[in-house]
């Protein structure tokens, strides 16, 4: 029992007496849909049952007193995580990934369909993935399906099995077992998904433009940046919008890095195209101008761009053009990042940041005068809406009792050796951050990093 946790029975209660709640959380700063205020939250059977003003003295089997410097938040929802198990578990597995998520206040992740072997492109592969996750999930885990050439017949079956939507690439995915779609193939699958109101999520970079750009090589970051020009993103996003408009499908643009695309996205949303957009902590906190030569930990696709571009992405978030901030946690082994040679043409492209997303974004948001409530909206409420998770992301009666206890003013320095990610490499090594997650709670049960209590979740009807 910690110093801020008490047992809520009086000595004269008998063993058969049942107090009203399994868990009560009390704090001066509790974030609900009405903002941050002093409140008490009563939990029973993994659900939020009651929310009352602080002082109501709700009774519980356990009582957690949230400290004065802490804010009780809804657990974050990260809809863009590459776990890679089975097949590439040495890159990341469900145990390490979900521990990292919990340590970062993320209580629900949705796993991407590639980098594992087999990729999640049919029902058999989904069942293999679920079996792997069922043994080691420290947070709630759901799954995206994949849309690849030749699996159109599998899409409805995967949808009915509970995947949250389907991911496709418009260029080589980085792994041969998950091939890309042409724009016409994407449209055909979009039409199929629209017939049962599913969601197409797209890695939007144009393969022709990238194939005709300078090929990346060497240790200088500017050379890699030139190999993934904004035009590749802009053109592909334009294609996604055009085909979503034509088919009526719900479409989502993954990991937006080019601010040039914001105006076309704004216009598409205004005219009623069913379009949502995400960006990631690395595009909002890192700058191309500051990436050292050979620092391949920074390599990701699409790439980290310039300072002015970053400012426009933040503006896009504040204006509601960009909906979500998610990690795109895409880890690999240290050797695949080619640290020894520092060659951006050879290194794996991906940033591992699942444990750090909230402090990264909060540190930058504080500088910009953006509230913690707004950050949680981008990192929990809106990703939850994207996946259709109506029982997550808000502290509200009837929702799941998933929480993060966050100390927004505490500072720490990133040390990759202290992260739960499987491989100790990060572009954030040594970075000083504001905000520390001190506790995560799943369905009313503390994450103790010893016993996995996460649930496998499915798309809600």
Key attributes of the depicted protein:
single chain; 6-stranded parallel beta sheet; 18 strands; 12 helices; 2 domains; alpha/beta; 461 residues
Question: Can you describe what's shown?
Answer:
By secondary structure, this protein is α/β, with parallel strands linked by helices. It folds into 2 domains: 5-68, Roll (Urease, subunit C, domain 1), CATH 2.30.40.10; 75-394 and 410-433, Metal-dependent hydrolases (TIM Barrel), CATH 3.20.20.140. It contains 12 helices and 18 strands. It has helices at residues 94-103, 123-134, 152-160, 183-194, 207-211, 221-227, 230-247, 262-270, 281-285, 307-318, 357-367, 372-387; strands at residues 5-7, 21-32, 35-44, 47-53, 60-65, 71-74, 76-81, 106-111, 140-143, 145-146, 166-169, 199-203, 250-253, 275-279, 324-325, 403-413, 432-442, 445-446. A 6-stranded parallel beta sheet has the order 10-11-12-13-14-15. A 5-stranded mixed beta sheet has the order 1-5-2-3-4, with no helix packed on it. A 4-stranded antiparallel beta sheet has the order 6-16-17-18, with helices on one face. Strand 17 and strand 18 form a beta hairpin. Helix 4 packs parallel to helix 7 (230-247). The radius of gyration is 22 Å and the shape is globular. The two termini are 39 Å apart. Residues 5-17 have low confidence and may be disordered.
